[in-house]
């Protein structure tokens, strides 16, 4: 069965966004883009919450066709247009694009079905609300965290409403020259 890996930028104090969803504190640069680009090419399914999906859909389908598109825009736009997208939403009825599945009910059953199809990782991008739902259902298999050198003090936490311990095993770490540190964990299940 393939794995769901949560890909998230996080502050040093564990927040994934400010109180109003602000992400202007996240540090990204070409070094991180290149590293992430290599890693996400290993996945063939992207999992999003509605808000993150709509944000992605407003940019990535055409980002690679812009005259001043960066290397990252070209590569990620190509990947985004090819990857199967799964959106968790109780309000969205039609994604308006091909290669997209919307899950609005029976979350656990539908996610398990998707995990049983194929052999590449399912990458959960951002999407704090979707992440919280999947954590509570014990459906996330790993965390790929980019710890940013900032303490927000308040905001939307990565881990909230946890009912029992989640034991993790550290697989890799990588510091980036801009001060971000990548931590790659797998969930240590008995």
TrEMBL record:
E.C. designation(s): 1.5.1.3
One record GO biological process: riboflavin biosynthetic process
Domain of life: Bacteria
Keywords, alphabetical: Oxidoreductase
Molecular-function GO term, any one: dihydrofolate reductase activity
Domain Bacterial bifunctional deaminase-reductase C-terminal: 2-180
UniProt cross-references to Pfam families, sorted A to Z: RibD_C
PANTHER family tied to this protein: 2,5-DIAMINO-6-RIBOSYLAMINO-4(3H)-PYRIMIDINONE 5'-PHOSPHATE REDUCTASE, DIHYDROFOLATE REDUCTASE FAMILY PROTEIN (AFU_ORTHOLOGUE AFUA_8G06820)
Protein's UniProt name: Dihydrofolate reductase
Organism the protein comes from: Adhaeribacter pallidiroseus
